[in-house]
Specification:
Chains A, B: Belongs to the cytidine and deoxycytidylate deaminase family. ADAT2 subfamily. Chains A, B: Its cofactor is Zn(2+). Two copies of one chain form a homodimer. Chain A is α/β, with parallel strands linked by helices and about 140 residues long. In chain A, about 35% of the residues lie in helices and about 20% in strands. Chain A has one domain (about 20-140): Cytidine Deaminase, domain 2. Chain A has helices spanning about 1-15, 35-40, 45-60, 75-85, 125-140, and strands spanning about 20-25, 30-35, 70-75, 90-95, 120. Chain A has a five-stranded mixed sheet. Chains A and B meet through helix 2, helix 3 and helix 4 of A and helix 2, helix 3 and helix 4 of B.
Chain lengths: ~140, ~140
């Protein structure tokens, strides 16, 4: 999660909402991403999507077997859907997101009967650090 | 929708599940995509994501203002989330998808109180053609 937080800081340096993510397999980081929809002109460029695409390229496979994802913020519906498609084994996230989150909030996607893959879910990891970054970012933009 | 169906056929030619999508602005197609997670080693490479990314590159903006999306199959949670992030104005889709769909089925994403953007939704457009393609594809793989 320390690596994911470092990526979130990189997003903040580029004036993007600070969220970072890494994909880990066999205790090795194989995918990295941070939120950057503005710079890339890409509404899908969330941290998780970037990290998953990066890891899938690394593995040469659209299924990330035995991979975990660590992300600083609770995933939205788009990212939770991508986590399911990628067959991620474990989802570790930092801060909960009552507004945009889709794991513990809103549609609670992995609790839906139609979801085709459900990772193990561990929330609240280094949540204070993740929240502090987000607060700092939004305060600086006022 | 005819253009989206042609893209779905292109997916089938590449042995991918045949789904196609186009983004339209001012009666002009500005984004195209078809489903190709296998060829691209990318679990996020659904038709809608590809078409949205294509259109966002064309516009140089992560928000697709006054744009509509036409897709041959009911979007999944990932793609419905992307449609919300992109601020798509109208969603036109072909066949419903009881298993993977997230618009009329499963989480019914745009009905959630936390969704930050809800397009106008028109389903069932040329649904027979879309369904016929999908059936043909899955029959050919048996």
């Amino acid at each position: 999660m320390t690596a994911a937080l470092a990526l979130a800081r990189q997003a903040m340096d580029e004036n993007e909402v600070p969220v970072g993510a890494v994909v880990v397999k066999n205790q090795q980081i194989i995918g990295r991403g941070f939120n950057r929809p503005l710079a890339t002109h890409d509404p899908t460029a969330h941290a998780e999507i970037a990290a998953i695409r990066d890891a899938a390229q690394f593995l040469g496979n659209d299924r990330l077997q035995d991979c975990d994802i660590w992300v600083t913020l609770e995933p939205c519906a788009m990212c939770a859907g991508a986590i399911a498609h990628a067959r991620i084994k474990r989802l570790y996230f930092g801060a909960g997101d009552a507004k945009g989150g889709a794991v513990e909030h809103g549609p609670i996607l992995f609790g839906q009967s139609t979801v085709h893959h459900k990772p193990e879910i561990y929330g609240g990891i280094m949540a204070e650090e993740a929240t502090a970054l987000l607060k700092l970012f939004f305060q600086s933009r006022r």
